[in-house]
Design a protein that fits this description.
By secondary structure, the protein is of the alpha+beta class. 47% of the residues lie in helices and 9% in strands. Strands 1-4-2-3 form a four-stranded mixed sheet, covered by helices on one side. Helix 2 crosses helix 3, helix 4 packs across helix 5 and helix 10 runs antiparallel to helix 11.
């Protein structure tokens, strides 16, 4: 297809072609190695699909869009099909990548899921628990949409836990849903229900109940101007389950030895190995 100013082609981009295109990468945003690795991971596993996104070149021949996909192609050694647009006006550069990036919850909403955002965030926590990290951003782990899909396909009943955990505790529903699902999956269903109930209404199960201790601590935190880091909060909530699972007590919240994990849940069980 041709226009007065640009041309559009569909090209099977091999690693060699990708490398040649990258030689014209004179002006572009800073490369994200993690994003390249994520794309390469999808290409290697066959999860990279043609979706209409284009590799774009300006009127002076510079690559202006597609460096991460091209680098992923080179890294994976796999070819991929893409639209290639050439001779785009230089002034159009400012409009590239200006839209909001879709979250996994956005993908689920498009597919018709109710509570899509909550399900997406809960899947993130299932992955984080399996990877034993209270946060994914900045960690060594790289997971793609295909990984999230694999977890949801293997653990469809997590949707029920998401519904049960709705409006349980301030900005903590997704983690609580993930803990409830893993606990139920690994044979602690009754305790998982009691755990959610205690987080919801402050129901005391026994003296020095760890859920009540951590819950009260976080309620006080809501009144502070300088809030604790999210990963610290996540580890506290996980600590409340680790103690509650064993009917243990808690009188202080020292996190130096607390690991973000749950018994019986690892990357293989989760579905990301």
């Amino acid at each position: 297809m041709k226009d007065q100013n640009f041309t559009v082609d569909i090209v099977d981009i091999t690693p060699q072609i990708a490398n040649n295109f990258l030689q014209k990468n004179a002006k572009n945003r800073k490369l994200s190695p993690r994003h390249v690795e994520a794309i390469a991971k999808d290409m290697e596993s066959g999860n990279w699909k043609f979706n209409g996104d284009a590799i774009r070149f300006s009127s002076n021949g510079n690559l202006v869009d597609g460096q991460h996909r091209l680098e992923g192609c080179v890294l994976s050694g796999k070819s991929f099909k893409s639209i290639v647009i050439r001779n785009i006006d230089d002034s159009a550069m400012r409009t590239i990548d200006s839209g909001k990036r879709r979250t996994y919850g956005d993908h689920l909403r498009i597919r018709g899921y109710e509570n899509a955002s909550a399900i997406g965030t809960t899947i993130s926590f299932l992955i984080m628990i399996a990877a034993q990290t209270p946060k994914l951003q900045g960690s060594k782990h790289i997971f793609t949409t295909a990984d999230y899909d694999a977890v949801l396909e293997k653990h469809k009943d997590v949707i029920e836990s998401v519904a049960l955990a709705k409006s349980t505790f301030h900005r903590s529903d997704a983690l609580l849903a993930a803990i409830h699902y893993v606990a139920t999956y690994t044979g602690y269903g009754d305790q998982a229900d009691s755990f959610l109930q205690s987080w919801r209404d402050g129901q005391i199960n026994y003296d020095d109940d760890p859920v009540i201790y951590i819950r009260n601590l976080l309620l006080k935190e809501l009144t502070k101007v300088n809030k604790m880091k999210v990963e610290h909060k996540n580890r506290l909530i996980m600590l409340s389950w680790q103690k509650f699972q064993k009917f243990d007590i808690i009188k202080n919240a020292r996190l130096s030895s607390v690991k973000f994990y749950m018994d019986g849940w690892d990357e293989d069980v989760c579905g990301i190995s």
